[in-house]
Amino acid sequence: MTGGFHARKLAIVGMGLMGGSLALAIRAQADHITGIDSDERARQIALERGLVDSATDDLYAGVNRADVVILATPVRVIVELLRMQLGSYLRSNTLIVDTGSTKQDIVDAMAALPIGVNAVGGHPMTGKENGGIDEADGALYRNRPFVLCPSRRTTPAARLRAQAFVESLGALPIEMDAERHDHIVAGISHLPYLLSATLVATISNRAQDDSTFWALAAGGFRDTSRLAASDVTMMGDILSTNTQAVATLLAQFRMQLAMLETMLIAGDQERLGEMLLPIQAARKEWAQKYENGR
Amino acid sequence: MTGGFHARKLAIVGMGLMGGSLALAIRAQADHITGIDSDERARQIALERGLVDSATDDLYAGVNRADVVILATPVRVIVELLRMQLGSYLRSNTLIVDTGSTKQDIVDAMAALPIGVNAVGGHPMTGKENGGIDEADGALYRNRPFVLCPSRRTTPAARLRAQAFVESLGALPIEMDAERHDHIVAGISHLPYLLSATLVATISNRAQDDSTFWALAAGGFRDTSRLAASDVTMMGDILSTNTQAVATLLAQFRMQLAMLETMLIAGDQERLGEMLLPIQAARKEWAQKYENGR
Predict the structure, then answer these.
(1) Nearest Cα to B69, choosing from B11, B151, B148?
(2) Contacts of B197 in chain A (CB under 8 A)
(3) Hey, are the CB atoms on A213 and B264 less than 8 Å from each other?
């Protein structure tokens, strides 16, 4: 534990699934919560459900006098917000934490904030199949890892406060540098999305000649293709801010695939089995730990 | 409807998930059901749960005087059974249907059965994450497609009887030739398995240097990697009896992946989005139909 967290005025930019859930989870630790969103319906729901004390589409009014600002918009918008006037709107010692899915571009943008503003990159490893404020859930962050990436604007005090903030959400803070984070999520999240989308593209292509492809697809296809239904704008943002790490992981994936295919085509079922057994064991071991940790 | 189905003596070779569930589903339509399995525990459970009227490890005794024989073992065992003495054990007009996941090798083996034995290849598009007789479930086949592939030993009467058999399980018969079947399942089942296994291999490899890969993996990875936990012997059997179709689909997958990667590396987010949107739409459309049909 790093001590309790308390905010006088907490401003959340972006009233979607992440921002709305965060408001619910942090309710008791903030005297006043302001939700900032350009979408009127999102603001209305945030007010109606009591997620926030006030809501506005005016960034300046929203963050004015806030001691904590959470950026919970898509990655590219976070980067733009940091590069634009946001820094000049904030008083000294304000803490900024974001929830973007890639971190290098964001901590780079944080580095250019005025001295005195404290900023820590954040990535909560949680979510739901459907986004939007309607899905806001105070338990979304509970027991889930919340990566914190220091920026050039992370003072030792800001680091501790960000950790206390994460703990007050019920999440598990994990510190690492942005490059390492982006490499890891390229493997566990962006590569799976690309494989899922490419699988669906391949089947769509085949199904043009024979729609039975769709008719016979079942549970295995459903699981493997689920990520292909992810929000395209969000995934485009994420991929385009993590191109290099994704390309590295893709190259490693292709190498592994070629090895399996070689065994398959050679008809070497024994060697193929020797390759597949440790893969099966690794998946089972991970799944057991993951389900126990939930 | 193709009329009711009735068997005097129905023999099921292989008392696993598929065979056990089939016994439960067909109970009322057979005067006597015999379960044949080399595993004593499987036979015992089949008897204790009342799935079968008798159980034996003796193939000859089990299929003797049966008018319907179901082969519900792994694919390679089905092929071996068909090539070995099974044909000579059966009386004329016995109907054989199998439940193997690939069909060309099986209908080829069926073609060599004695004239007078009727044999139809079958593939029920259903299953569970965990196999074994303990998971046997009379509803496993209900409303699921059950592909039927004619062989050189499929008479018009056998074809109708096999359809009636499938309908009596509550499943939906779909007729197609074995080559087309194998091409389709290569896409919707074997390719997804290989992608899933290769993803896990890639992450395992990276995690050797940094175990945080495992610690941060969450729901998206879980879904995409689920098939990697499939039974390795079963998948090895399936892949090795469908090598050519799998290789064809893999080549098409690689082409699609290269197209997406090119857009990604070029930083052409607009074109990338144009490629991802129809993929997202196709996945959503399929999922809606699939969930409605269950």
Answers:
(1) B11
(2) 260, 276, 279-280
(3) no
Say how far apart CA B203 and CA B215 lie, in whole Å. Answer: 11
* Rounded Cα distance, A35 and B170, in Å: 53
Q: Which backbone phi and psi does B171 adopt, to 5 degrees?
A: -95, 170
- Are A104 and A182 a contacting pair, CB within 8 Å? yes
* Cα B202 from Cα B209, distance rounded (Å): 12
CA distance linking residue B76 with residue B56, whole number of Å: 21
ipTM for the assembly? 0.92
Position B203, amino acid: I
> b/e string for A32-61 if b means 16 or more Cβ within 10 A?
ebbbbbeeeebbebbeeeebbbbbbeebee
Taking the Cβ of residue B236 and every Cβ of chain A, the question of whether any pair is shorter than 8 Å is answered with: yes
A290 touches chain B (CB under 8 A): yes
Cα dihedral: B244, B182, B103, B229 (round 10): 90
Edge-first strand listing for the sheet containing A172-175: A54-56, A30-36, A7-13, A68-71, A95-98, A118-124, A145-150, A172-175
Q: Of A220, A157, A224, which is closest to residue A197 (Cα–Cα)?
A: A224
User: Which two structure tokens, joined as six digits, stand for B139?
Assistant: 């509803």
Please enumerate in sequence order all residues whose Cβ is within 8 A of that of B109, keeping only pairs 6 or more positions apart, or say none.
Answer: B78, B79, B82, B83
Bridge partners (DSSP) listed for residue A120: A97, A150
Q: How far apart are CA B71 and CA B80, in angstroms?
A: 11
B-chain residues near A230 (CB < 8 A): 280
Q: Is B185 on the interface with A (CB under 8 A)?
A: yes
**Above 90 in pLDDT, residue A2?**
no
Residues A268-280: tens digit of each pLDDT: 889 999 999 999 9
Between residues 196 and 215 of chain B, which touch chain A (CB distance below 8 Å)? 196-206, 210, 212-215
Q: Which of A202, A265, A279 sits opposite B201 (nearest CB)?
A: A279
Neighbours of B208 (CB within 10 A): 8
* pTM given for the model: 0.92
Q: Flag whether residue B275 sits within 8 Å of chain A, measured between CB atoms.
A: yes
- Is the CB of B281 inside 8 Å of chain A's CB atoms? no
Q: Which tens digit of pLDDT belongs to each residue from B132-150? A: 999 999 999 999 999 999 9
Q: Does A281 lie at the interface with B, CB-CB under 8 angstroms?
A: no
| Residue from A221, A285, A275 nearest B227 by CA | A221
Model pLDDT for residues B144-171, shown as the tens digit of each residue: 999 999 999 999 999 999 999 999 999 9
Instruction: Give residue B239's identity as a one-letter amino acid code.
Output: L
List the beta bridge partners of residue B71. B13, B98
| pLDDT < 70 regions, chain B | 1-3
CA distance A273 to A279: 10
* DSSP-derived secondary structure letter, A49: T
Distance CA B15, CA B33 (A): 12
